[in-house]
Amino acid sequence: MTERVLMAPSILSADFTSLGDAVRLVAGGGADLIHVDVMDGHFVPNLTIGPPVVKAIKRVTDVPLDVHLMIENAEETVGWYLDAGADLVVVHAEACDHLHRVVQTIHAAGAQAGVSLNPATPVEVLRDIVGDLDLVLLMSVNPGFGGQSFIGRTVEKVRRLSALCAEEGATPLIQVDGGIDTNTAPLVVEAGARVLVAGSAVFCKADPVSAMNAIRAAGERVL
Ligand code: DX5
Ligand code: ZN
């Protein structure tokens, strides 16, 4: 298991009128992934961006793009995001009837595959696929919006996911998304998370790079 905490700043909280600058800023400041939240107004009650914006972001950075698909029809449209340059594609278990097939499609395109679970979805649904995954994303808020409060039960859920992975001999990275800041980062890292998504706690700060690295440092203190 890596002894580093990887940071995936979520551009959802960036200023969309100068998105390229925001991406370049955190990329230059040590971001490990750029987290891109795709929402369709159906799976989640918000609508954000799609493939053309993913493609545009890809042009301004070499940092891998972590594309979080909060959409109903990921099985039909995942190819759009792969073609747009996603390096890691994360789909929701709740939105995919044929999760294994989507993961195969992502891998066949040479990208990494992740699966995300909403707060109310038990980790057990991943038992028969966790060995095929590069990453599991546990949502620590109900997906749809930045700036929500961290759901405390997520800490125990990360622990249960870590145990399930050990039982299955699987080693996906565990990512947590929602309400991550310098207070919540150590809680989830201690439980087994190694990739932290942070939106408002990075981009709503005067110095996003310092804020991002402070969250990483808070997490790494418990390793
Ligand atoms: C929420 C998104 C998150 C969001 C997190 O549905 O998936 O990535 O940007 O925002 P914060 O860090 O503000 O909770
Ligand atoms: Zn996200």
> What is the domain total for the residues?
1
Distance between the termini: 11 Å
Strand order of the largest sheet: 1-8-7-6-5-4-3-2
Helix count, DSSP H or I runs of 4 or more residues: 8
Describe it.
The protein is 36% helix and 18% strand. It has an eight-stranded parallel β-sheet. Helix 3 links the parallel strand 3 and strand 4. By secondary structure, it is an alpha/beta fold. The protein has a single domain, classed as Aldolase class I (TIM Barrel, Alpha-Beta Barrel), CATH 3.20.20. The protein has eight helices and eight strands. The structure holds D-xylitol-5-phosphate (DX5) and zinc ion. The site of zinc ion has 6 residues, from strand 2.
Short description:
The protein has 223 residues and is α/β, with parallel strands linked by helices. Helices cover 36% and strands 18% of the residues. The chain has one domain (6-220): Aldolase class I (TIM Barrel), CATH 3.20.20.70.
Key words describing this protein structure:
36% helix, alpha/beta, TIM Barrel, single chain, binds D-xylitol-5-phosphate, 18% strand, 223 residues
Secondary structure elements and their pairing?
Blueprint: E1 6-9, H1 19-28, E2 34-39, H2 51-60, E3 65-70, H3 74-84, E4 88-92, H4 99-108, E5 112-117, E6 135-139, H5 154-168, E7 173-177, H6 185-191, E8 195-198, H7 200-203, H8 208-220
Parallel strand pairs: 1-8, 2-3, 3-4, 4-5, 5-6, 6-7, 7-8
Helix pairs in contact: 2-3, 3-4, 6-8
The protein binds D-xylitol-5-phosphate and zinc ion (ZN).
